[in-house]
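[job 4471] stage=fold_predict status=RUNNING
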Amino acid sequence: MTINPQIFKSYDVRGVYPADFNEEIAKKIVKAYIKLYKPQKVVLGRDVRESGESLHQVSLASFLEAGVDVIDIGIVSTDMFYFAVGQLPVDGGITISASHNPREWNGMNFCKKGAEPISSETGLFDIRDLVIKNDVNVESENKGSVEKKDISEDFLRRVASFIDLTLVKPTKIVANANFGMDVILLNKAISMFNLPLTVIPLNAEPDGSFPKGPPNPLLPQNRKEFLDLLRSEKADLGVSWDGDGDRCFFADETATFIEGYFITALLATEVLKKHPGAKIIIDPRLVWATQEAIINAGGTPVICKPGMTIIADRMKKERAVFGGEMSSHFYFKENYNRDNGMIPLFLILEMLSKYNTTLSQLVAPYTSKYFISGELNFETEKKDEIIQAAHEKYEDGKIEFIDGLSVEYQDWRFNLRKSNTEPLLRLNLEARSREKMEEKKSEVIAFIQSFGAKPH
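[job 4471] inference complete, writing structure tokens
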């Protein structure tokens, strides 16, 4: 069997099922994971995808045949998987998921003990090399045992521990699960903690066929439906998760979508009230609002290359208490430094109640001052050439290479980077006025397109 090495990404394994990723390949990957890490006991989970059940079964069988005990947590959100590996007495784990990719994709996400991530730099490419060489023999005379476990209540108790539940006031929420698990989890939390929340559900029943397209809240077609419902219901808040639930996105009471950049600034200020003087991890795509929020709240911003495994590792190294990405991954020290899609909702609910305010008012100090382009993507084979040319064109600005090229001037800045997962060049630009943002956005787009790059 020929294995496409491209399915081994920076942070996980992802490929089209069954052409690039299937049961036979899953079996080999599990065996390579066992050979490399020699676990005695693991967690195994999966997301709602249609191909997940058979991939889950062969993965389970592969662990058991090799003498590895398995705690089978069933269909879960990815952040539930991280919690399970961190909380339970295991040596690591695998969840079968392709995050927000289209329905025909599937893949695997890996942890070591304590929910520590496995990335291309910390073992994932070693797994790849074993698989490609077919060096995966891990047979054992002793077979492993399997224990099925529902971890949802323990997970929700951990989420709830981040706030004072008694402060939460009646709030009407439009909640879009994008056919994943999160509306079910939210309703379970309401029942467990007797929370005064009214949930208007959208795409709330788990459905791995993703009938409305890729379960990605950033797609315009997903965003419109969500915001229209928020408007018609006159709700106080909107929350939308991606298909595997590890990212959450918010809209305010005016049905305005709030970028993850501004939510990071907001959450950082709140977390710093409980952890004065702490370090907060941010990514370099957009930085002015987050830096201002963190410094004003007495914290220290640490700029780090984005990526769910990279930031988790940097959180641990810096002993940071919180990390946030523009892509709406939010990381918490008390959550094994991993990202979580439910904790941010609870924190925002507490803030709305505690300060008797609205989300639009909470983010106004940032949205009124910093104007952003949104992430603009371009298809091109000339990614390196364009980045080098942009460096030369804008060399009079303050230059950084933390992730791609960042250029900063007094009244505007931009970041140009290669996608880790797609053949795309990504542009993010911010300015201190809407006029400057629009002017410079047009200028940089024209420059990128002069190399034949096409908007994606």
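[job 4471] summary: The domain at 371-455 is CATH 3.30.310.50 (TATA-Binding Protein).
[job 4471] exit 0
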